[in-house]
Amino acid sequence: MRRSLLLAPVFASLLVFPIARATGHAAVEAKVIRQFKAGSEEARFGALEFVGGLQYNSAGGRIGGVSAIRFRPNGRDFVAVLDTGDWMTGAIERDAEGRLSGLSSVSIAPMLDQRGRSSSKFDMDSEGLALQPGRLVVSYERRHRIDAYPDPVFQNGKPEPIDMVIPRRELRANGGIETIAASPVDGPLAGALVAVAEQSIDGDGNLFAAILDGPHKGIFTVARQEPWAVTDGAFLPGGDLVLLERRFSYVAGVGMRMRRIAASSIRPGAVVDGDVLIEADMGAEIDNMEGIDVLCGENGEVRIIVVSDDNGSFLQRNLMLEFRLVD
Q1: Domain total for the chain?
Q2: Residue ranges of the chain with pLDDT lower than 50?
Q3: Residues of the signal sequence (predicted)?
Q4: Hey, which of 35, 70, 110, 174 would disulfide with 118, CB 3.0 to 4.6 Å?
């Protein structure tokens, strides 16, 4: 049976298989992915070059539902949010050639709400994550909001609300603010936070987005291109925004692409669009790709890491894929 047909019920109905909530250390097993397309040595795809990847899991399905990931300045340690309302922290390991080889020190902890308590998935459906000095900023669907947690004590700290700028009435129940990213401090937006909705559109059919703080604070929109939905975004060093997008159909299965939005175009009132860096279908090693981040090497090399959300389903995979920006 075609894998796209197996996945159809999961993506079409957003079915989530219930798994036990877990905390603490999670032993992770990882399998290295060396080819982006099975049976092909091709490495260049659009403006990106595939470096390597991982398929990973843990005993009892304790890891799953990754919605967003951000790396610390050292490029090794990461913080991720799960749509079950949990934090995941850990580190990536690399082999002698600098390719992803595994995950270490992985742990899971429940997010706390403003009352200092863990809550239900409906209340804590975390989708986006941004790192700023002294705080981690998280966006939530269903009960739409953006909260800032104190860093590094985010696992025990109570969040403070942040102005979403986008009116709550414009946000769809399961298509709210999927992307939240911190722009470069020395870039055109001077470190401001940017949010982009997954499927919430204005009267012209464009996705709601906003600059959440700073002198350019205000609403803009992103040109929506059916059947793609924005699942995350991350800024390049120069200030351009890379949006991760996903599509699904019964015939073609799931697809992934990345779109580059010029920094100069992001301003209140604008409708932004950009060039596609890469597009992939089920012939490549992809799944339900939901999270993206950018790593910058000492030699100026830019790498992009994307991760998938397995929806708690045995039919899907937890993936971490790494690309080098070459164009």
Answers
A1: 1
A2: 1-22
A3: 1-22
A4: 110
